[in-house]
Amino acid sequence: MEKQTYYHGTGRRKTAVAQVRLMPGEGTIFVNGLPYEELFSRPLHRETIAKPLLLSEAMNRYNVTVKVAGGGISGWSGAIAHGIARALVEADESLKPALRQNGLLSRDSRAKERKKPGLRRARKAKQYTKR
Description:
Ribosomal Protein S5, domain 2
C-alpha cells in the first residue's frame, strides 16, 4: 500500500470545527464528500473558503478534503478557511506572514452570547410601560 502525503489543519469558527487535509493535486475542494460549490451557494462563502489558497497562489497545487461539523454555513466557511490556512503553513512555512497579515491564521473568537434570565435574548429586555 502506497503512503500518501498530506498536510493537516484544524479550523474553528463559532461552533463549527473543520478538519482539513491538503494533498498535492489539481485544485478540487470537497466538503463532507461533496464539491464545495454544491454546499455553498453564496459567492461570499465560496470566496472565504478560497481566500487562503488564492493568497498563497496554491489554488491549482492542492486538493482539499474537509470534514466539518457543528454550526451553520457561515461558521463552516470561516472554519474551513482557518483550517486551510493552518494546513498551508504546515506545508510551507514561508506563507505564514502573508496569511497572518490577512487575518487567516487567527481564530475568530466571536460567538453567540448566552441568554440571560429575565430577558428575552442575551440583552433584549421586555418593553417598559409607564402607564
